[in-house]
Amino acid sequence: MKPYNNPPKLNTSRKFSDNLTSAHALTLKAKLGEKGNSKGTSYALPAFNITTIQGINAAFDAFETLGSSGVLALSNSALKHFGAGDAITGLEVAANYIESRAKRSSVQIATHLDHGDYTSEGGRKVVQGAVQYLTSVMADNSTDHVNKCARSLEENIGYTREVVNMAHPLGVSVEGELGVLAGEEDEDTKSEISTYTNPEDFEQFITETGVLMIAPTIGTMHGPNKGKPGTKVKLNIELAHELLKIADRIQPETIFVAHGASTLYPQVVEYAVEQLSTLGSNMSDKYGQTWKNFVGTDWEQIQGLIGAGFAKINTDTENRQTFLSALLGAVSENAAKVDIRWYDKKTTEALTQSYLVKLIMAGNYGVWHESKINVDKFKFDLHVALADALKNAQ
């Protein structure tokens, strides 16, 4: 196969709507440790997968409380949910709402298509639509889902380069993936296999595609069950550093992305199990052990990735669990409250707490303005209302 040469550079002069920018622009600031007018230790941007309007609101509230850079990620299934079954309609609905919030925001935000598949007719339409509506797209062409195997390097490069050719001139940053990540994020993103990224393939991939963001596979997994209960997920940090040396030699502005990096908060599990017990022995017996069996990625492992050039950390499962746990608490508190807004407020505030703690853990605060709370005092506790949690962190 003839190699691809001279991939188009990202058009960094493109001006998006107020307070919107590309994911690469924000993650590069994080990799360089830039906050305000100073430069310090590298940090990361947790990319929050959003599926509802309340998820968007919670994320903006968290970003603006901490002065954080924000990445709002939309999967194909989330877009279909926003668009009543049609992903393109969902793109318009979600992008327009985010844009309206961003115009009134005090921070910079990127919108990102998660796991865009350019290998199928339907997937191509979604990626093409995302290039028009969002500021960043993922070209996930690493897996042959029909044959349940890794796609050839040549095919992956070819499909991904097509997306780069289309997106980079418009200022839309592109994230590629090399290797296969096991697990299930949702019905549209799942794989039974997993492969590590090969360093030789990696060098060819970033050289010929021109992507500035890449998700290498180093041992993370999608979904709430990343291993056996009582065991810690082991990530290949050495491989991450080896890949970083290659990237820094070829293109120092390359950003690594960690998929399947949810850490799953023990206090959320404990709260959920507590609420299930309150709702009755039948609920506790049926679902309590499932909650206890959830296994996430240890945060110390993720911190090791930040030191190896990972400036975008995808999180989804832990926030879904927080939402569900808070909903169980709301039902336990008042199962006859005939007011959707009350349940909406309870779950949205819980999501905000979940987002706040992950932003703090990743060091993503004080980027655009000083944090409105003392980050060292903030405690994530679903027993405490959001207003009280913020007041306690003054």
Task: Summarize the SSE layout with pairings.
Blueprint: H1 23-32, E1 34-35, E2 38-39, E3 45-49, H2 53-66, E4 70-74, H3 76-82, H4 87-103, E5 109-116, H5 121-133, E6 136-139, E7 143-144, E8 149-150, H6 153-167, E9 173-178, E10 183-186, E11 189-191, H7 199-209, E12 213-216, H8 237-250, E13 255-258, H9 266-279, H10 281-293, H11 299-306, E14 310-315, H12 317-333, H13 340-361, H14 386-392
Parallel strand pairs: 3-4, 3-14, 4-5, 5-6, 6-9, 9-12, 12-13, 13-14
Antiparallel strand pairs: 1-2, 7-8, 10-11
Helix pairs in contact: 2-4, 2-13, 3-4, 4-5, 6-7, 7-8, 9-10, 9-12, 12-13
Description:
With 394 residues, this protein is of the alpha/beta class. The protein has a single domain, classed as Aldolase class I (TIM Barrel), CATH 3.20.20.70. It has an eight-stranded parallel β-barrel, surrounded by eleven helices. A two-stranded antiparallel ribbon has the order 1-2. Strands 7-8 form a two-stranded antiparallel sheet. Helix 6 packs parallel to helix 7 and helix 7 runs parallel beside helix 8. The radius of gyration is 20 Å and the shape is globular.
